[in-house]
C-alpha cells in the first residue's frame, strides 16, 4: 500500500544584519530594558488617538478599564463616525451603543437588519448612511430611516439590488430629508415620475443622484432636479435615450453623466455633447453600441466641444488629464489629489465623483467578466484600479481592492486566475499597495485587501512576490483579528499561499499554523467561510512532514476532529477530512497517524462522512481512512465502528463517481483488508464485485489501487474463489499484461499467484456460499490462463544476456545489475505480514516453476536494501528459515534461470541485512 497526501492545487526574508555608525555605548543603550510605561499617565490627547484607532467594541472595552478612560471613551470626537459592517448590528446592539451616538454623523452598515436597527442608535444628527448587502430592505424600513434622520445629507445603499424598494420609499425619503445632497441606490424596481418629482420639489440641495442597475427610471422627471450636478444611470437597460438625451441637456448645473453598462447609442451621446452648456464629462464604460461604433469610426466623438467622453477604447489617464489645463499632470498622477487642490472646486468635485464612478463600474465589469476586455485590463484597467487604491475616499479604496480580487478570477469553482492579469497587478507594484492597505487600521479595508492578495496568490509567481514582500507575516497577523471578515480573508490568503512548498515553512515560522488552529476554536460552526479557509490551509500545511507536527502541536488534531464531528457545512467537512488525511499520511516519520486515530470520535466521524451526500466529503473521508488504516490499531478500530460496511457500501456506490473518489474508496478497502478478519468481512459483504469493476478502469491510479485491494483479498481462499466466480481472472490478467503501472501489474500477478497456489482447490469443491449457490467456474482453465500471464509478467523483467552473465559469474556486481534492472521502486512501500512472507516461502517449494519464479521475484522486491520495510521482511524470512529454501530454489535444476537469479539476489539481500544489523 502507498499513502497518498491530498493537496489542493516563500521564501523567508533573509535576515538582514545592520551596522550602525555612532559612539560607543549605543549597543548598551539598546540592550537596556525599556522603561515601564504607565498607561494611566498618558496625556488625554494621546489616549484619544489610541482609542480612535480601535473598532467600536474594543473602544468600549478599553473605556471600561477606569473612570478616566470611560470619560475619554465617550468623547464626541470618537463617535462622529462608525463602521459597523464587520459586526452584528441589530436592535440590541444599537441600543447598547445609543448613549455614545449623540454626535454620530457618518455611519456605514452591512445588511438590511442593520439598517432597520439604525433608529435605535438615536443619532438624530446623522448626516451620512452608507450600506451594502441590503437585498432584503423594505419600503417601511427605508421610510423609518428617513423619518428619524431629517438632517441626512448623503444616502448610499448598494451594490446589492434593492428588489423590495419601490417609488413609495423614494417619496418618503424626499419628504423627510430636505437637506439631502447625495442619493445613490442600486437595483430599484422603479423610480417613477412621482418619486423623482418629489425629490425635485423637496430636496433643493440634491446634486448627486445615482440610480444603478434599476429596472425603470423616468428619464424626463430627472430634468426637474434643477440642482443636479452629477448623474449616474449605469446598468439601467430600459431608458428611452431620445427622451433622456433631450431632457437632461436642460439641467442648468449638470457637470457629469455616467451611462456605463447601458445600451446608449452614440447619437444620444452626440446630442448631450452638442446641446448641454455645462456638461464636462460623460462615462460610457462597457457600452456595447458605443464601442462597436468606435471600432467602425474612431473619430465619432472627435468634435466633443471640450466635453470628455470616457470609453474602454479611450486612454483614460490622458483623457482625464485634459480636465486640468495648465497643470502639469504626468501619467497616472492625474488621480493624485494633490493635483486637484490647485484647481477650482468643480474640478475637485468632479474628480471625487469620477473616482467613485470608476471604482463602481470597474467592479461591475469585473464581476460580469465580459468577453473582449483583456486588452483593456492589461493596458490600463489594472493601472486604473491600482491608482484608485490610493484614493482618499475609503469606499473607493475598498471597492478597487474588491475589483482587483474579482477581475483576475476566471472560474470560481476551480479557483482559476488569469495569469496575465494577476501578473499585471504584480508588475505595476500592486502587491506592495495591497499589503500596505492590509496593514491600515480600517478593518473593512483589511478584509478587501486580504481578499485580493488571496486571489492573486493562486498564481505561483505572484504568491512568491507576496511572500517576498512580507505578505505571509501580514496575513498571519490579520488571521488573528477579532473581526471575522478580516480573519476569513486572511485565512484564505494563507490557504492559497500554503499550496506552494516553499511557503509552508514560512507560514509555520510566522505563527500562521497556531493562528489558523485558533480560528477554528474562535468562530462558531455557522461561519463556514472562515472555517473552510482555516481547515483548507491546515490541510495544505499538513501535507508537509515538519508542518504536520506543528499542526498537531498547536492542537490541530482536536480542532479538525471537532469540525468533522459537529459541523454541518459540506465545504468545511471536506477540508477537515482532507487535513486529517494529510496528517495521517506521514507514517513512520511522526506519530500523527496514531494521534488522529486515538482522538475521541475521529474514526466514527470519518466513517460517517463516507455516507455524505457530497462527493468531495466522501472522497476526503475515504482518503483519511485509507491513510489511517496503515496503523494496526486504527485498522481494527475503524472496523469496530462500522468502517468495513461503510466502505464496501461506498465502493459499491462510487462506480459512476469521480476518479478520485473511486481511488480513495478502493484504497481504504485495500488498507483495511490487511487484517484477516476485515478481508473476510469485505469479501462476504460484497466488496469483490465493485473492486473488480474499478480494476477495469482505464485510469491508472484507480485500477492500481483496486489491484492492491484484490491482492490482499486473494490471500484468503474464500475471497480467491469469489474473485474467480465474479470473473476476476480476466480482469487481473488484463492488468497484469497491459497496465502502464508496474505496481498494478506486480500486484495483479501476486493476486493470481495467491489464487492458484493450490489453497483454493478445497474451497472450490464446496463453493463460497453456504446455500450452495456459487457460480459454476472452470478453475483449471482459469489457472492455466493465470499461469501463462504470471510467467509473461516475470519474463518482462528478464534480460537474457545479463541473466546469463549473472548465472555464470560469482561477482556481486552481476547480481547488483540484475537487482537494479528488476526493482520496482514503489514496491518498497509495501509491507507484508509474517503469514504473507510465509506463503511466498511456501511457493518456492511449489511444483510449478512459474509460481517459484513469481515468489522469488516478490521476495526480491520486498528485501532490496534501502526499501522502507526491507529490514522487517528480512527478519520475517529469517524467522521462517527461508535461507535453506532459497538456496534450494537457486540450485534447482527444474527452475528457470530467472527464478535462480532472483533467489540468489534474495539470499544476498538477507546477508546484507544481517551484516548491517550485526554492525
From TrEMBL:
Residues 1-10 have a biased composition (Basic residues). It holds the Pfam family Arm. It comes from the Eukaryota. Residues 36-82 form the F-box domain. This is F-box domain-containing protein. PROSITE patterns: ARM_REPEAT, FBOX. Residues 1-29 are annotated as: Disordered. Signal peptide: none annotated. ARM repeats lie at residues 429-471, 470-512, 511-556, 555-590, 601-643, 642-687, 686-728.
